[in-house]
Every structure is written in structure tokens, then in C-alpha cells.
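In response to the reviewer comment on reproducibility (Comment 2.3), we provide here a single inverse folding case reported in full, input and output, so that an independent group could reproduce the run without further information from us. The C-alpha cells appear first.
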């Protein structure tokens, strides 16, 4: 049954498409319709038979379902009958009215005197062409008066001037046997004239001249679309006749003047359109009966399609409406009130019984799903309570932000450390909390700097000093605490979903560490190194001076070497003491505007780098090739030139030593790069990044996180204070430093300068605004 139904549907669809295509193709031409009339009738019959077979198969199928008492069959039949009547009755009414209207309308079309109007328009176009042809004939005769008594040589010189004066496109003088005497044309690209056709030459043999409008010819294959030109041919000299009174013939000595003028494109196009419309109207007037048959077949086909489509749609809609209506009638009310108990199943094995069993299975599944949801909800509540208990008992502060930096979660430790009630700002930016503006700005800057440095670590760690509004002991109005904070981005389903910040108050730890460090440095300098250095050096120099003249030359040389060794070692110890003193007491930075690129160029030239040949390889073994990539649009920064020069020297020397000691000879490379980091939004500020990298071995994992601490070094002769001093100077310049190992080998150190020239630090802006307000008061 299904195969037969699908076959009937396929035949009907193919026939409908073919018939509609032929109708559309044949409607524009009555002769074309007459040729395809039999084909249209055949396809129409095939389509009708296919649709009748399809509907018959559907009706038999529905009748069998009713006999088998199949669920919903009677309701389907009832709905089908109603929907079919609704679709057929309006269609039949519209069909009858359309046929009557179509028959009368076609007859009324040809009562209007359209043919008279078209013929008048055609005559108007002909009159316009005749007027132009007469005007061209008159100008040609004026030219003949000048050319009649002229010789062939004079005609060649006069023809161009006469053509231009009379505003003619083309002029030609030829003899009766076709010999060209002179030719002139306004088209410079035309090298050869347009000779008269053979038909025109035949007409000249029996007539005194020729004047007519002709269609333009393209490539000799036929006339072009809508283009016309006027051709006039008249004899040169007075008209003569033979003794029998016949006009002058095309003799070898007769001369003729031909002038050609193009018809304006608009007039030619309109004349062609009027002529074509007149032909189409005459053809249409002869096919009135064919039009009535054509539109009658089209309307009949539309009626058949509408009737059988209504039957098919009625069957489809009826089947869709039966089951939902019965389902809603028996079970919607119980489910709507939340009663998932199974309904009693009726003993009868009918449609209601089938629906009841299906409904009971559904209610059991809904009850199980509700119980599962309740269990998951209780587990989630317990997990949330456990997480809140853990967070509340943490001494560290925890802050969670969404992607817009709105505070979504915090713990009691964060409120205790910051002395801020964060409950009032939950769901809002942290800046809206009283006393938390500085911390919020530092957190935003830390995330922004971490992205700008392009660190390989998934988190950042920084030490903040913030000023609280009220001290915990209420002895002072403000006090400063030091926070050690770590931040990372929260990743959910492969995309960033927020930010997590964990921090501790390390003010007491910092204070104790500084006390121990200062005490240890002072003790070592005072008791072990500093005090005995000067007496030792003075004693060695005094021995060399007193005993040099009293000893033999060999003994004197040995004494000189010994005392010189003592002096050199004392000087080395003094330099080490100076390094300790420099680390402990760095002088305050003298800030001024600095061109970082110029400072780098000055220091790099001391290491053999040439700006004219920046990629020049090293010339001696033990040196490295320096590659500098300095950004051209780099702004000025604020800093101390002497301290920054010391930082650059230290970084370049360390990178050069690491690359030369571990890289193959001639392959050691140090790369220096500067770059302007632009903010992602208008609220941010631009920053300058300096990167120094090498192709050495890099840092060991156990040294990498302690590389900025004093006495940590990988050099056999180093003191371990170079990078510690670098970090101290960078922090005093309100900059940030990050160090990591490169994936391709070697180390990389990045410095991010946030203080640019002519720009005050942004952290002081709120305090300055507050001071200005107090001064105004």
C-alpha cells in the first residue's frame, strides 16, 4: 500500500511540473500553444488519473482502518470530510466565477481600438523617417550643385568640406561601373566606404535616384537590433535621357553621389518597438479562441490541484489532531496538579486503554525524574554548604569575579583582611565598596599586565601594598598592609568565565624578613669583611714599600707579587661589599623623560652592536650576536637614566654570558625587543614592554622561582645580587618584571613600564582629587 501511494505521488508531481512548465512556455505565443495542445491534454489526463488514484488509495486505506476499529480512524474520517468540504466548496465557486470572468474579459480586450492606435504610431514613425529622408535628399542636391562641374581631383578635395558643412556622416562619389572617385566619413576608424547593395544598383538602372531608410548590417550577417540609417543616391550633372526617353542608365562615364546619415538611436528604437507591438497585437487578435482554451485548462488544473490537495491536507491534519486531543482529554488535568500516580487501566482493549497504559508509563518516568532531581538538589545544597564552610574558615581572602569584573563570591577572610563589608557589593564591581578602590585597580592592572607580558604561567603572583581606611586597633585612622595575591582566569567549557583572586596579609612576614636580612647583612659587613679590609691593604702596601730596597731582586719580585695579590683580593672584597651596600641602600630614583630606544642603542653599541648592520654576526669567538628590534612608535617613559642603564647592562651581560657558555661557537644570540602595548578599552593606559632573550640553557626549575632573591646565582664567580638589584630598581620605577624559559631554549626576561612621559601615576588620582576638594573647602 505504501509503495503504491508513493508511486502515485511521484507520477502526480512529475506530471504537474511538466504541465505547468508547458503552460508557462506556451502562454507567451499562440502558435506555440497550438503546437503543444495535444501534449497538454495528455499530461492533464495523466495528472488527473494519478491524483484520482492517490486519493482512492488513501480513502481505501482509511476505510480499512475504520473496519479494523483502529485507534482514531473514525475521528480522522470525520475531520477529513469537514476539511475537504471547506477546501472544495470555495474552490468550485472561484472556478465558476473565474471562467465566466475570463471569457468576457478576453472579448472585451479586443473591443478597444488598440490596433488603430498602433497603426497611427507606426505611421507617425514612418512620417518622421520620411521627413529626415527629405531633408537629407535636399542637402545631397546642394552638394551636387558644387560637384557637378568639378573634375575627379577637385571632387576628392571638395567632398570632405561639403560633408562637414552639411553635417552628413558619410559621402561617396562613384561611377556607374562601381569605380570609387572620392570618399569622406566622420568615423575616423572607417577605412573603406559602404558601397550600394546590388538591389540599389538595379534600382538606379531604372530610376533617376535612390532614397530610403535601411537597417544597419553587423558583420554582413544581417541587420542589427533597432539601428537604422538613411541612404540617398543622386546623379552628378543634369538628368539626360536617350532618344527613347528613358532615364540615364549606369554607364561607365556617369557619376553618382551617395550620402548616408544615421537615424537617431531613440527614434529608431521607438519605431522598431511600435512595429513589433503591432505585429504581436495582430497575432494575439487571431488567437482569441486559443487563449480561452489555454486559460480554461489552467483554471481546470488549478481546481484539480486544489481539490486533491485539500483532501491530502485534510488527511494529514486529521491524523495529527486525533492523538493530541485524546491525550489532553484523559491525562492533562492530573499531570497539571502534580499527581503522578498511575491511572486505573480499563478492562476494555480499546483506544482509551492504549492511551492509559502509555500515560501510566509516562507518569512513572516523570516520578522517577522528579525524585532524581530532588536527590541532585539536596546533594548540591550539601556541596554548597561544605564549600561555604571551607571558604569561611580560610584565613586567606578569596574573591571571585565574573567576566565583567563584578564580584560574585567572597569569604570571611577577605572581609577580615580588607576590613570591608563585601556583602553590599555582591553582584557589582569591587570599586563600589568603600575602601576597596585601590585593591580593585591593582587587581585589574595585574590581570592586564599578565596578558601583556604573555607569560607562560597560568597565573600571576604579585605583592600589593594598600592603605586601609581604619586600623584594626583603632589607634590610627589609616595603615598600610602588604598583600601577597595570586590571580587566574576561570575556564568553563573551554572559554573564560571569570576571575579568581586569592590573597594573604604578609605584612608581619615582610617586616620580620626585612629585619633578619638587614641584621645579617650588617653583621657580615661589620664583623667579617668591612673592618679588616683597610688595615690589610695598608699593611701590604707598607711591607712592599719598606722591604723592596732591602731584598735581593728575586725576593723583591716575590714580595711584590705577594703584596699585589693581597691588594687585588682586598679590592675584590671591597667591590663585593659595595654590591651589598648598593643592594641595601639604593639611592632614590631621579625621574625624568627617557627615550628607551636611544638608551638601548647606547648600551648595545658598547657590546659591539652596530645600528647600520643590526644583523652582523660575531667576529670573534666568545662573543654573541645582538639582534635589536626596536619599535618605531615607542613613547617616552619616566625613569632614572643611570639606574636603567645599570639594569640594561646587567641583563645584556647575563644573556651574553649564558649564550656564549652553552651555545655552539658562532651561534650565540641575544635578542632585544621593545613594543608598545595598547589597552583593549578606553579606560586603560598604554605601556612599554622591554624583552631580553637568549639561546642559552635557560634556568633550572628549582632556580627559576628564586632567581630574584639575593645570593641566588648560576655563575661560578657571581655574587647573586645582579638580578636582585634589577628587580629592586624596576619596582622603584613602578614597573613589572617577569622571567621565564623559552620553549625553543634559552631564557626570556620582560619588563613592563607603565609610567610614560607627561603622565602622572593613576593610583594617586583619587588622593589628589580628595586633597583638592579639602583645599577648596
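Designed residues, in position order:
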Amino acid at each position: 500500500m505504501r509503495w503504491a501511494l508513493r508511486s502515485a505521488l511521484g507520477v502526480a508531481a512529475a506530471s504537474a511540473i511538466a504541465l505547468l512548465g508547458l503552460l508557462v512556455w506556451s502562454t507567451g505565443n499562440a502558435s506555440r500553444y497550438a503546437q503543444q495542445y495535444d501534449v497538454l491534454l495528455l499530461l492533464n489526463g495523466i495528472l488527473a488519473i494519478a491524483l484520482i488514484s492517490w486519493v482512492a488509495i488513501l480513502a481505501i486505506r482509511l476505510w480499512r482502518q475504520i473496519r479494523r476499529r483502529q485507534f482514531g480512524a473514525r475521528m480522522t474520517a470525520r475531520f477529513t470530510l469537514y476539511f475537504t468540504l471547506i477546501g472544495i466548496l470555495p474552490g468550485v465557486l472561484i472556478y465558476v466565477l473565474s471562467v465566466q470572468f475570463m471569457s468576457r474579459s478576453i472579448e472585451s480586450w479586443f473591443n478597444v481600438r488598440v490596433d488603430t492606435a498602433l497603426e497611427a504610431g507606426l505611421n507617425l514613425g514612418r512620417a518622421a523617417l520620411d521627413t529626415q529622408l527629405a531633408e537629407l535628399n535636399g542637402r545631397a542636391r546642394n552638394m551636387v550643385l558644387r560637384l557637378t562641374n568639378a573634375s575627379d581631383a577637385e571632387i576628392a578635395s571638395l567632398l570632405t568640406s561639403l560633408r562637414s558643412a552639411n553635417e552628413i556622416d558619410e559621402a561617396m562619389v562613384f561611377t556607374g561601373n562601381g569605380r570609387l572617385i572620392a570618399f569622406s566619413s566622420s568615423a575616423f576608424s572607417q577605412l573603406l566606404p559602404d558601397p550600394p547593395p546590388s538591389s540599389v544598383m538595379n534600382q538606379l538602372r531604372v530610376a533617376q535616384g535612390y532614397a530610403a531608410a535601411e537597417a544597419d548590417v553587423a558583420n554582413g550577417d544581417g541587420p542589427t537590433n533597432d539601428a537604422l540609417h538613411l541612404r540617398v543616391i543622386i546623379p552628378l550633372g543634369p538628368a539626360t535621357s536617350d532618344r527613347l526617353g528613358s532615364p540615364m542608365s549606369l554607364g561607365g562615364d556617369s557619376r553618382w553621389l551617395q550620402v548616408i546619415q544615421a537615424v537617431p538611436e531613440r527614434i529608431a528604437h521607438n519605431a522598431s518597438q511600435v512595429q513589433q507591438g503591432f505585429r504581436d497585437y495582430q497575432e494575439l487578435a487571431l488567437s482569441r479562441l486559443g487563449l480561452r482554451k489555454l486559460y480554461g485548462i489552467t483554471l481546470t488544473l488549478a481546481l484539480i490541484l486544489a481539490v486533491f490537495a485539500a483532501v491530502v491536507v485534510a488527511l494529514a491534519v486529521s491524523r495529527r489532531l486525533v492523538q493530541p486531543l485524546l491525550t489532553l482529554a484523559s491525562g492533562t488535568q492530573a499531570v497539571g496538579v502534580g499527581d503522578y500516580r498511575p491511572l486505573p487501566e480499563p478492562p476494555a482493549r480499546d483506544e482509551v486503554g492504549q492511551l492509559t497504559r502509555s500515560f501510566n508509563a509516562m507518569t512513572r518516568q516523570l516520578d522517577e525524574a522528579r525524585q532524581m532531581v530532588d536527590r541532585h538538589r539536596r546533594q548540591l545544597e550539601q556541596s554548597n554548604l561544605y564549600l561555604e564552610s571551607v571558604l569561611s574558615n580560610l584565613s586567606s581572602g578569596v574573591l571571585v569575579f565574573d567576566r565583567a569584573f563584578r564580584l560574585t563570591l567572597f569569604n570571611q577572610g577577605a572581609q577580615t583582611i580588607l576590613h570591608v563589608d563585601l556583602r553590599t557589593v555582591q553582584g557589582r564591581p569591587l570599586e563600589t565598596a568603600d575602601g576597596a578602590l585601590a585593591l580593585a585597580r591593582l587587581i585589574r592592572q595585574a590581570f592586564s599586565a599578565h596578558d601583556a607580558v604573555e607569560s607562560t604561567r597560568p597565573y600571576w603572583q604579585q605583592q600589593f601594598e594598600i592603605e586601609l581606611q581604619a586600623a584594626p586597633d583603632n589607634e590610627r585612622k589609616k595603615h598600610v598592609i602588604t598583600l601577597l595575591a595570586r590571580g587566574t582566569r576561570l575556564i568553563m567549557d573551554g572559554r573564560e568565565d571569570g576571575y579568581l583572586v586569592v590573597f594573604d596579609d604578609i605584612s608581619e612576614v615582610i617586616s620580620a624578613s626585612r629585619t633578619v636580612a638587614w641584621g645579617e647583612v650588617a653583621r657580615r659587613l661589620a664583623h667579617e669583611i668591612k673592618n679588616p679590609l683597610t688595615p690589610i691593604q695598608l699593611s701590604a702596601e707598607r711591607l712592599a714599600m719598606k722591604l723592596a730596597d732591602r731584598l735581593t731582586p728575586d725576593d723583591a719580585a716575590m714580595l711584590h707579587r705577594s703584596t699585589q695579590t693581597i691588594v687585588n683580593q682586598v679590592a675584590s672584597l671591597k667591590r663585593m661589599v659595595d654590591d651589598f651596600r648598593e643592594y641595601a641602600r639604593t639611592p632614590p630614583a631621579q625621574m625624568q623623560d627617557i627615550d628607551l630606544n636611544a638608551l638601548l642603542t647606547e648600551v648595545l653599541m658598547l657590546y659591539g652592536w652596530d645600528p647600520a648592520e643590526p644583523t652582523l654576526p660575531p667576529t670573534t669567538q666568545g662573543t654573541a650576536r645582538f639582534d635589536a628590534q626596536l619599535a618605531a612608535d615607542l613613547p617616552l617613559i619616566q625613569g632614572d637614566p643611570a639606574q636603567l642603564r645599570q639594569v640594561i647592562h646587567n641583563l645584556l651581560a647575563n644573556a651574553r654570558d649564558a649564550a656564549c657558555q652553552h651555545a655552539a661557537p658562532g651561534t650565540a644570540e641575544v635578542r632585544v625587543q621593545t613594543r608598545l602595548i595598547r589597552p583593549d578599552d578606553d579606560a586603560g593606559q598604554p605601556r612599554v614592554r622591554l624583552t631580553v632573550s637568549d639561546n642559552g640553557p635557560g634556568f633550572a626549575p628549582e632556580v627559576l622561582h628564586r632567581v630574584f632573591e639575593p645570593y641566588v646565582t648560576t655563575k661560578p664567580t657571581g655574587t647573586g645580587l645582579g638580578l636582585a638589584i634589577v628587580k629592586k630598581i624596576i619596582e622603584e620605577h613602578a614597573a613589572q618584571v617577569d622571567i621565564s624559559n623559552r620553549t625553543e631554549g634559552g631564557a626570556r626576561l620582560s619588563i613592563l613600564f607603565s609610567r610614560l612621559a607627561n603622565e602622572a601615576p593613576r593610583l594617586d588620582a583619587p588622593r589628589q582629587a580628595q586633597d583638592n576638594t579639602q583645599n577648596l573647602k
